[in-house]
Design goal:
Layout lengths: L1 H8 L1 H41 L2 H22 L2 H14 L3 H28 L1 H7 L5 H10 L2 H17 L3 H25 L4 H29 L15 H8 L3 H21 L2 H15 L3 H19 L3 H28 L1 H9 L7 H16 L3 H7 L3 H26 L1 H27 L9 H21 L3 H18 L6 H4 L7 H7 L1
Helix pairs in contact: 2-9, 2-14, 2-15, 3-5, 3-7, 3-8, 3-12, 3-13, 4-5, 4-8, 4-11, 4-14, 5-8, 7-10, 8-10, 9-10, 12-13, 12-19, 12-20, 13-17, 13-20, 14-15, 15-17, 15-21, 15-22, 16-17, 17-20, 18-20, 19-20, 21-22
Length: 518
């Protein structure tokens, strides 16, 4: 009896391992592209901050904060509907609902985005006086850039479509080659011809429109090559309004948390302190956000795969997928974390000059929050796949309120430093509560003991280098070298847990990679 049971269940781990391996391999292609794009975007960020005056950059960053806020509202949580419902409908061969979901989501997001842009135009004087503290330059930039909101919302939706139909190469090209290339061109023209910040805003808008147009053509070709267009019947289209909105409306609370923790702080800084404090905060925030670079790359393919496993009731497969993905993110994000946390002060001066010296502590606090959020994996996404909407909503509303209250208390007194404290603390607390909900609501282990060594080596290495930097005030290049050594040790000590032999055997053919990971 025992042997027959073992025989019956033996093939299942191989199936799970294959699915997890494919997810990590596909995500790593996106990661390679994201590293390329982030490298370009990071260079663009540094050039913009160094070229523009502090007040010009503050006004530009403030306008982009409103764009991100509007984009989140326009998206209405429907980008998650694409990655959850479309693969489920495809698995069940319910093509009428599949195409109905696509049509419904695209039309809703475009309509909301354009409506928000027109509202800003209609109430521009009220916005200027109440939120921009009368800054006319910020108003001009906002009225130009606000049309980026629907453009970027549609762009995110298209990325979700390519993820559903397993097309990492298309995502790689559009998001990681074309988009940063267009923005780099705009910034180079800005600097070479000594244009002003209005040219920069117009160039950002134009590059976004061009990118979406190219993506639409690529999507149509993908659907045709997959044979899905042959199942399209306009007369049979079903619009699953109730199913989709019953799932997405509660999850708007996730967008609320994201907006408050990443955008509202800039708006509050402008209101209580001015654009100089906005610049001090927003100059280093993109650097801190690089701690979520690898996590974002893995997220694109994680949700569709987890949704398919959920549809098959493969709970153990989701657990394996969750933790194996989490340690890949934690280990390979560590080089970014140790630089932006342990070496934050000298790194800030190296990148942005002495004008932004005081932003070093802001970078350190933000990096701590963003890395903590990434290192424990996709607890929030997994809760959504399991449909634990009530818990997510309650948790997100509590986090949003807590962060808003902290910012309203700290920003008027401490400015950008207070915003960093509020945002970093909320990220950590929010993630702890999501991890607790994961164990209670899905059965996924709160913490997998197999990976305890990973998190211990990461913590000790980061704190050790921070102590060395604080005591010795070592030159920045020495600190960067030490960060590289610490990263090598973390990867080397945990290489067996990564299961590279199965996931990426090609890497072991390279002498350097074989010595590091073999």
């Amino acid at each position: 009896m025992g042997s027959s049971t073992e025989t019956a269940t033996e093939p299942l781990p191989r199936i799970k391992a294959t699915a997890t391996t494919r997810q990590i391999r596909g995500s790593s292609l996106l990661l390679a592209g994201r590293l390329l794009s982030k490298g370009v975007n990071f260079g663009v960020q540094v050039m913009i901050v160094r070229y523009l005056s502090v007040t010009d950059y503050g006004a530009f960053a403030l306008a982009l904060s409103f764009v991100s806020l509007s984009q989140s509202i326009a998206t209405f949580g429907l980008d998650r509907a694409i990655t959850r419902f479309v693969p489920i409908y495809q698995e069940k061969k319910e093509y009428a609902k599949l195409f109905g979901t696509i049509i419904m989501v695209f039309s809703t997001i475009l309509s909301l985005g354009l409506a928000i842009a027109l509202l800003f135009y209609g109430f521009q004087h009220l916005v200027t006086q109440s939120l921009l503290d009368g800054d006319q330059q910020a108003r001009t930039l906002l009225l130009l850039l606000i049309f980026l909101a629907p453009v970027q919302a549609i762009d995110d939706l298209l990325i979700g479509m390519f993820a559903v139909f397993a097309s990492p190469r298309a995502i790689f090209f559009r998001k990681n080659v074309l988009a940063p290339g267009l923005r780099l061109t705009v910034v180079l023209l800005l600097i070479v011809f000594q244009y002003n910040v209005l040219f920069l805003a117009g160039g950002y808008l134009a590059s976004g429109v061009i990118g979406v147009a190219i993506y639409v053509v690529m999507l149509f070709r993908l659907l045709r090559s997959e044979g899905l267009l042959s199942h399209f019947d306009r007369s049979a289209i079903q619009l699953p309004w109730r199913e989709v909105f019953a799932f997405t409306i509660p999850l708007l609370s996730s967008d609320l948390v994201y907006v408050i923790m990443n955008q509202v702080d800039a708006i509050l800084l402008a209101r209580f302190q001015g654009t100089a404090d906005v610049a001090a905060f927003r100059a280093v925030q993109p650097v801190a956000l690089m701690n979520q670079l690898i996590m974002a790359s893995f997220a694109t393919l994680f949700t569709p795969l987890a949704a398919r496993m959920f549809a098959r009731n493969d709970r153990q497969g989701i657990n394996d997928l969750y933790w194996q993905t989490a340690i890949w993110i934690a280990i390979f994000t560590f080089p970014i974390f140790v630089l932006t946390f342990s070496v934050a002060q000298p790194l800030t001066v190296l990148l942005f000059g002495t004008r932004y010296q005081e932003s070093g502590i802001i970078l350190m606090l933000l990096s701590c929050g963003y890395y903590f959020n990434a290192a424990l994996g996709f607890n929030g996404l997994t809760l959504k796949v399991y449909g634990k909407l009530r818990y997510i909503v309650s948790l997100n509303v509590a986090a949003a309120v807590a962060n808003l209250v902290l910012n309203l208390i700290l920003i008027p007194r401490y400015g950008a430093f207070g915003a960093a404290i509020g945002t970093g603390a909320t990220l950590i607390i929010h993630n702890i509560l999501k991890q607790t909900g994961l164990r209670l609501g899905t059965g996924i282990s709160l913490f997998d003991r197999r990976y305890f060594r990973v998190y211990i080596t990461i913590s000790l290495s980061a704190l050790g280098l921070l102590l060395i930097q604080a005591v010795t005030s070592a030159p920045v290049y020495v600190s960067i070298a030490l960060a590289g050594l610490a990263s090598f040790l973390v990867i080397r000590l945990n290489r067996r847990l990564l299961n590279v032999e199965e996931t990426f055997p090609e890497l072991l053919r390279l002498p350097l990679m074989r010595r590091l990971l073999g």
